[in-house]
Amino acid sequence: MATAALSPATVSLRLKPLSSTVRFLSLYHHHQPKPMKLKYPIMLAPLHQPPQPRVHFNYFNNSTAHRRCFSTVASATVSPGEVVEKSKTESIEERVGEFRKRLRIVDIKGGESEGVDRLGQTLTVKGWVRTLRIQSSVTFIEVNDGSCLSNMQCVIDSDAEGYDQVESGFIATGAAVCVQGVVVPSQGKKQKIELKIHKLVTVGKSDPSFPIQKKKVTREFLRSKAHLRPRTNTFGAVSRVRNALAYATHKFFQENGFVWIASPIITAADCEGAGEQFCVTTLIPSSKEAIDSPASSIPKTENGLIDWSQDFFGKPAFLTVSGQLNAETYATALSDVYTFGPTFRAENSNTSRHLAEFWMIEPELAFADLNDDMACATAYLQYVVKHVLENCKEDMDFFNNWIEKGIIDRLSDVVEKSFVRLTYTDAVELLLKSKKKFEFQVKWGCDFAK
C-alpha cells in the first residue's frame, strides 16, 4: 500500500513499467495551481484486487466550495507499494538546441574581445581551407566556415596528429577540414588569437586545381563557377547581409502587428497590367528527349489558336509580377498584412531597374491614409538599415573598403536623419531651382524614378 499527494496536472510523472495498472486522480483549483493536502490518503492498488471500501473526500472547506476545479486521469503501470517519482523537466530551448553542437568561428571571434577571452581553451573548428602556407618549422592554415568574414588562423607543426595529410597534399585551398587545438595569442597583426593544432582531420580533400584561390577574380569568372562563388568574401558577405535584411523585415512587421501572407507564385492574374510575364505551361515539351519536337506538336483549337484547355491549369498561367492583389484581399479581413517573396518580370533590360527575378516587400494597411503609408515606409527602412549596421559590421566594413566607399556613412544618414515629406509639385520646383543639368528634363508630370 502506498500513498500519493494530489498535485497540479501539469507536473510530469515518471512511472516504471511493471506488473499492474493504477489510475491517479489529480484535482486543482482553476485559479490557484498549488498542491493540495488531502484529508485522506489515496490508496494505490492493482486493479485485479478486490475493490477497496469507498472513501468520501472533503476536498474543499466552506470558503472554497464555490470555486471551479478540473480533474485529469492518468493511467500507468506500477508494482504494488512502489512510490511514483517526478521526472526532471527539460526546457524546450534545451531540447531544440541539442542539434547545434558545432562551434562556429563567429562564436569564437565575433565578440568585442575577438576571441581573447578564450585563450587557453581547447576548441574544435570545422570549415574549408582558404589558404595554406608551408614554412620550414610550421604550417599556417586559414579556415573559414561561412559564419563570418574572418578566418581562423591555425598553426600546425610536424608533431601534431594528422600532419601527414599536409605532406601528402590532401590539405589545400578548398579542402574541408576538422581541426582541434588550443587558443593561443597570435604573433601576427591581423588577428589577436590563433589555434595551435593538436589534431587535423581531412573531411574532404582538394587539389591545386581548385579554381577559387587567394587572388582577386572577376564576377564574370565567378558566373562560370556558380557552385563555388559562395566561398568568396563578396558573395559570403552578400548572403549574410541579405539574411539579416530578411530577418529584420519579418521582425519589423511582426512587431508592428502585421500578418505575413504567402502570395502565390504561379497565377493567372497580371497585377501590374504591363503584360511582361513569364508564361508557365506544360504544352511545350520539357524533357530532354522532346526538346527538338516541332512547334506543330503544341495543341491548337479549330481556329489555329493555342488550346489552353489542354494545359496543366486549363488556361494561361504565369509567374507572379506582384503579390499586391492577394495582399489587398487579405487586408480587408486581417487589417495590416504584408507579402515578402519572389516576383518575376519578363522585361529584357540590362539595367538594375528591371531584374528578371527579385524579392519584393508589399505591405497593405487597412484604415490608413497616405501619411500612414509614408510613416510605415520610412520606419521600415530605418529599422532594417540599423539592424544591418549593428549586426553585420564586419561585412559592411568589407563593402565600405572594397566594394563601395562611403556606404556606411550614407546608410548611417538614413538611420539618423529624418525624412522630409513634400508634395510632388514642391519637389518639381526644388529641382528646377537647383539649376543643375539632368539627363532627363524636369517638368511637372515627369517620372522621378528615372
Automatic annotation (TrEMBL):
<dbReference type="GO" id="GO:0006421">
    <property type="term" value="P:asparaginyl-tRNA aminoacylation"/>
</dbReference>
<keyword id="KW-0648">Protein biosynthesis</keyword>
<keyword id="KW-0030">Aminoacyl-tRNA synthetase</keyword>
<dbReference type="GO" id="GO:0004816">
    <property type="term" value="F:asparagine-tRNA ligase activity"/>
</dbReference>
<keyword id="KW-0547">Nucleotide-binding</keyword>
<dbReference type="GO" id="GO:0005739">
    <property type="term" value="C:mitochondrion"/>
</dbReference>
<dbReference type="InterPro" id="IPR006195">
    <property type="entry name" value="aa-tRNA-synth_II"/>
</dbReference>
<dbReference type="GO" id="GO:0005524">
    <property type="term" value="F:ATP binding"/>
</dbReference>
<dbReference type="InterPro" id="IPR004522">
    <property type="entry name" value="Asn-tRNA-ligase"/>
</dbReference>
<dbReference type="InterPro" id="IPR012340">
    <property type="entry name" value="NA-bd_OB-fold"/>
</dbReference>
<keyword id="KW-0067">ATP-binding</keyword>
<keyword id="KW-0436">Ligase</keyword>
<protein>
    <recommendedName>
        <fullName>asparagine--tRNA ligase</fullName>
        <ecNumber>6.1.1.22</ecNumber>
    </recommendedName>
</protein>
<feature type="domain" description="Aminoacyl-transfer RNA synthetases class-II family profile">
    <location>
        <begin position="240"/>
        <end position="450"/>
    </location>
</feature>
<dbReference type="InterPro" id="IPR045864">
    <property type="entry name" value="aa-tRNA-synth_II/BPL/LPL"/>
</dbReference>
<dbReference type="Pfam" id="PF00152">
    <property type="entry name" value="tRNA-synt_2"/>
</dbReference>
<comment type="similarity">
    <text>Belongs to the class-II aminoacyl-tRNA synthetase family.</text>
</comment>
<dbReference type="InterPro" id="IPR004364">
    <property type="entry name" value="Aa-tRNA-synt_II"/>
</dbReference>
